[in-house]
Amino acid sequence: MYSEKVDITMSNVSSLLYSAKKYLVSGLVSTCVKVLDRSATVDTICDVLQQCILFDDGLLKKKSLSFIYFTATVVFNTEGFMRLSRDAVKTVAGVKRLACTEKYLFESCVKWARHQLLESGNVNPSDEEVREMLGSVPVHDTLSDDDFRRVC
Questions:
Q1: Does the pLDDT at position 57 exceed 60?
Q2: Does pTM top 0.85 for this prediction?
Q3: 127-134, long-range: CB < 8 A, 24+ apart
Q4: pLDDT of 8-38, one tens digit each?
Q5: Is 137 helix (H, G, I), strand (E, B) or coil?
């Protein structure tokens, strides 16, 4: 902070951004946001989005969602998508007219839910547990129970 020099990477940007916001170091906040913006690739966009949601950065969140809008089918197959929080998945699922079918979005969300359950130790989750994990993610409201069971 005193030298005004910092090496910002994707591995340390979150903690730096947290500290910069906490201590009102606006220059560092701006630099961290620029690093996140420049780091937007198919493989990193979910991490960028997660940071935007965590730190309430509306402009970068909008850019991230726009990026996901056009590359949804690829982004949904990344490990970054599997690591998203439920709030972030809910945000992505709420984007109107993603560049994928509703069925593909739904299948990706179910895959995300299964991954979350597996990470918590549930190796063989039931349909009800998957539904519960999805919670209020809007995509599952548009499919019938029969459609849900076919995908699961």
A1: yes
A2: no
A3: 127/152, 133/86, 134/86, 134/109, 134/110
A4: 988 898 889 899 989 999 999 999 989 988 8
A5: coil
